[in-house]
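1st attempt posting a full record on here, be nice pls
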Amino acid sequence: MVDEQNQAGVGRRQFIRSIFGLGTGSVAEEANASPAEKKIADRGKFFWTDLKTGQIGFPCGPSVPQGSPGSIMKLVSAAALTDAHLLPQDRKFECRGSIKIKNQKFTCLAPHGSLDLVQALGLSCNVYFAQAAQAMSPKVFLEYAKRFGLDKPVGGFPIGKFPEQGLKESLENYALGLAADLQPSALQIMRIAALVAKEGQIPYLHSAESPDPAAKPFELHLSERTWHVLQQGMQIAARQGTGKNLDPENKMRIAIKTGTTPHGNTFQSWVCGYFPWDAPRYAFVLRAFSGTSQEGAVPQARSFLFASEWP
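the predicted structure (as tokens):
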């Protein structure tokens, strides 16, 4: 007999599949996976960087995965909406659990009620950002995506897919990080977290083998209010949102953002962030090759973060 906790887990995965228009047959496929396949699927890729020196740590090896960022792109979307003054400061949207825009349905795990931008970012509300995206133009979105470095390499590592020739899908898909031609690398995603941590002033990010004393730091100039929105949203995500199980006792004072994307009949996920939030010293990212952020990326990142000695 399946216990209630397992039933709830299966039910939640089936519901998430419905958000992305996926079937539910992969529950059986996951159950039939061999131990070796499960071990490989559970092995995420973790990277971190020292925000003072810019040196990147590669505890899982030098290969850098790429993929759709999912809700991590809400950081870029929130920055554009705030910095370009596209929404009034106190603008709220109602989340009743789902909404249909231009014949496309956007769904949340549960109704969030009335939210402002900081709350929507922290709780990763798809319904809010689908509505807020109506205030953006493709030109503005691409401008801020480039300003965050999604078209630029990190430390000599290749960039992921970027829509240089304009948007081919709905703007909502890009704002929620679900477009097929926007697939940044793990290091590009980590750089987003680093930029939020240090309010746009970070050193040149590099591996220990390839320092470049002449390389220029990466700079991103946004309004003070924009940085506040992003930082507060990431702190809410760590305390109340999809990352609340990463550091539930708040020992490391982590600020995070997660992202989940469909991958065939299952999911892949990310978590990126920085710590301590009140005096940022490190940024990190983890790519989980199987599972939602709560099932994959968050617990895997926790195992790395709490297995290390951080000064």
